[in-house]
Design goal:
about 280 residues; mainly alpha; 2 domains
Length: about 280
């Protein structure tokens, strides 16, 4: 167990609280290790880089003042008194991949968790890292396109129409471009925060398709049942979209624009199917 350290996390981040609690319950750190960036005492706070600690969790040893950040903090906790893990994490390519994954999640944690800073204590919002935000948008669009493509494969088979493999990927990336343009007119300063939150809603919707795939495997749904299931997923996504827009202080017209794009796409797809 790692003791006599302080793991400084964001009080408003559900993911931060999750791994902090996991480390504690697994006996990797003691009960007093996890503290919050927003209200940790000044003596400890003065020993960290306050800007860096907003985007990378800080693990500080108050007596020596030595602090490690981000992935290094996690690895120190996980590999403490575990020589095998220490050697494993020293493998350069593995460390490189883990570091990039950590930074991708850390810089996007606010749009992933959908959390915002409260007025209680210091602000712990990481700065927008444009490359990592763009990578997040692209990865989510590719994953969502893959999942929705799986759904439309089932639906097209039931309808007896030819399946277009690239269509859903075009829709996912088109949605990003459409909403980017919409936010440029409505509130340009919030474009990247909004697109990050919109992408998280998309990935939640993609994951919600998994139970539909499983149910179809066992029950062999007809096209109407598939559409009902998909409508439930889209309805859930719309609710989450509206909720996140409110949290960002964006008007309902942003959600209306989101629906408008999908409606236009649906009309175009149905028209093409009818013409063929």
């Amino acid at each position: 167990m790692l003791s006599n350290h302080k793991l400084i996390i964001d009080k408003t981040c559900p993911m931060c609280s999750l791994y902090g609690n996991c480390f504690t319950r697994l006996g990797l750190i003691d009960q007093n290790t996890v503290v919050f960036y927003q209200n940790v005492n000044r003596k400890v706070f003065d020993q960290i880089d306050e800007k860096r600690a907003k985007s990378e969790v800080a693990l500080v040893h108050p007596r020596s003042g030595k602090t490690v950040y981000g992935l290094d903090a996690f690895l120190k906790i996980l590999s403490n008194e575990r020589s095998v893990l220490k050697r494993l994490f020293q493998v350069k390519w593995l460390y490189f991949l883990l570091e990039k994954l950590y930074r991708l999640i850390s810089f996007n944690r606010k749009v992933i968790a959908g959390s915002t800073d409260s007025s209680d204590g210091r602000v712990c919002t990481p700065p927008i890292h444009i490359p990592y935000r763009i990578i997040y948008l692209i990865l989510v669009a590719l994953f969502t396109g893959l999942m929705v493509n799986g759904f439309t494969t089932l639906l097209d088979a039931e309808l007896g129409v030819a399946h277009v493999g690239w269509r859903e990927y075009a829709v996912c990336f088109g949605q990003i471009a459409w909403q980017f343009a919409a936010l440029s007119l409505i509130d340009p300063a919030k474009r990247l925060d909004y697109l990050g939150n919109m992408s998280t809603v998309s990935i939640i919707g993609a994951l919600l398709l998994i139970p539909l795939f499983i149910a179809d495997y066992f029950l062999d749904f007809c096209w109407m049942q598939l559409m009902i299931g998909f409508a439930l997923v889209v309805g859930t996504m719309f609710y989450l979209h509206v909720k996140r827009c409110k949290r960002l202080g964006l008007p309902f017209i942003v959600s209306a624009s989101w629906v408008m794009f999908r409606t236009i796409v649906l009309i175009i797809v149905l028209t093409l199917i009818y013409l063929n």
